[in-house]
Amino acid sequence: MTAKRTIHALLPWLMLVVIGFASAWLRYRFIEPAALAHMCDEGNAHIPASCGFRHAVVIGFNTYSFGIAALVVTAAALVSKNRFIAWLAAALGLFAVIIYCYYAGAVALLIGCLRFVRLQVNGMPTPVDPYRHRDRNVQTQP
Questions:
Q1: How far is residue 70's CA from residue 140's CA, in Å, rounded to a whole number?
Q2: pTM, 2 dp
Q3: Residue 103 above 90 pLDDT?
């Protein structure tokens, strides 16, 4: 496998790792800290601009919207043969698992990864037999 093909094959998986780290940061450094929650309270006079985004994420996992979105994209990935949709199903599943939507996120992550691997393997060229240019003689059966 050439370096270009290796990078092309590994880049989506590395992006999933980046999405996992970003989701973990969002959960543990932006959603869960009590100090940020108190800064975003309604009675506070100086509400930061990031409170609207934080509130939207909290509503998203309270209504299980991230899990439902991951399952919808997973269903689309099963029907289509598009690698990006399969990767998106895995990415949304990973995001949903980390942001409190465990069951739907786990199903979407598993199916999205399996579907992406299948589509990725189907798109690769088949390996070539190094001995294909031998004698070119047909062996007779004994």
A1: 56
A2: 0.83
A3: yes
